[in-house]
Write a structure and sequence with these properties.
Number of domains: 1
Helix content: 55-70%
Strand content: under 5%
Number of strands: 0
């Protein structure tokens, strides 16, 4: 078999694995959120489906959603309404294809792009476009308001999300995700130690991009019923449900790669088979942080959300970039 044919076969296999992994990741994180939120509220949580620990609860929910009728409102824009959930899921899958989980490009990544972080930040916006499509096409005032709120959050928090990564790019000297991990492994410590401000800004902006508490205004059950997903049912609702948790994973992977050294753990050879386990352990910590914040902080008002982004996060991120650039030249 020629080298070119081998490359395309390997690429197809990696893409298929990435597509299959997304729903599995969504179910695992969904189960973790159910159990952790139950513990924080002194409840038992899932305990029937799958036995004592309720591990099959998300599988049972998935089967239930698939069996439900797919209802489309009479006045809805049918093509846009139908494709919005698929676009949200597609954005999640596209993020996973550039994440390095092993030093070897043959086994650890679908494609290492020279502008990998630029690609990741651009693709992360696709899901929000899907949310806006869902809100606009539903012919429902609550859905429309939810979609507009999501668009407002995207505009406000995309800037700090991008600016928070610039300091890492300056320090690493590359936009390649593999190169950023290699730079941290080579220097012997993660960029978190010098880019802790950028890390904090990135995580706050990530929560806003994921529309999770305290930034869940596009859903806001007490105000908008279910926001942009109000009119969705059946498997299309399931797409939104799984995409939320899968997006938590993909954004946590990006954060772990940029600031926590990715698959690298100092004192352990990154060429070993433990590299993916190390990366996923770091991702698990970040996901736990997101779940913990959801049940700890109250929802912000819309004006507070915009104030936090434009008056605080963006100026602080710019100062962090300037300080990083100056220290890079001086030191």
């Amino acid at each position: 078999m020629s080298l070119e044919l081998t490359f395309w076969w390997l690429l197809a296999i990696k893409l298929a694995v990435a597509a299959a992994v997304v729903p599995v990741i969504g179910m695992v994180i969904g189960y973790a959120e159910m159990k952790l939120s139950a513990h924080m509220q002194s409840r038992v949580g899932p305990y029937f489906a799958g036995g004592r620990f309720g591990w099959a609860q998300l599988i049972a929910d998935g089967v239930k959603f698939i069996q439900k009728e797919d209802i489309i409102p009479e006045e809805a824009d049918r093509p846009v309404f139908k494709w919005a959930p698929a676009l949200v899921m597609l954005g999640t899958m596209a993020l996973l294809v550039i994440v390095p989980v092993h030093p070897s490009p043959r086994y650890g990544i679908v494609r290492d792009l020279e502008v990998g972080i630029f690609y990741a930040l651009a693709i992360s916006s696709v899901s929000t476009i899907g949310v806006l499509m869902a809100g606009w096409s539903s012919a429902n005032k609550y859905s429309m308001i939810g979609g507009l709120r999501a668009a407002g959050q995207l505009i406000a928090y995309e800037l700090p999300l991008v600016l928070a990564t610039v300091g890492v790019v300056i320090q690493a000297g590359t936009m390649s995700m593999q190169g950023i991990v290699s730079a941290q492994v080579a220097q012997g410590w993660p960029f978190l130690l010098t880019q802790f401000i950028g890390f904090a800004i990135f995580m706050i902006a990530t929560l806003a991009e994921l529309t999770r508490l305290p930034f869940d205004m596009p859903i806001a059950e007490s105000e908008l019923v279910m926001g942009y997903v109000t009119e969705y049912s059946g498997f299309r609702f399931l797409f939104f449900f799984l995409a939320e948790f899968a997006n938590m994973f993909s954004m946590s992977v990006i954060a772990a790669t940029l600031f926590l050294g990715g698959y690298g753990l100092w004192g352990i050879n990154p060429e070993t088979l433990f590299s993916p386990i190390i990366l996923f352990a770091k991702v698990g910590i970040l996901i736990f942080l997101m779940i913990w914040l959801r049940w700890t902080l109250p929802r912000l008002r819309e004006d507070q959300l915009q104030t936090l982004a434009w008056k605080w996060l963006i100026p602080i991120a710019i100062v962090n970039i300037i300080a990083t650039a100056v220290l890079k030249v001086v030191l």
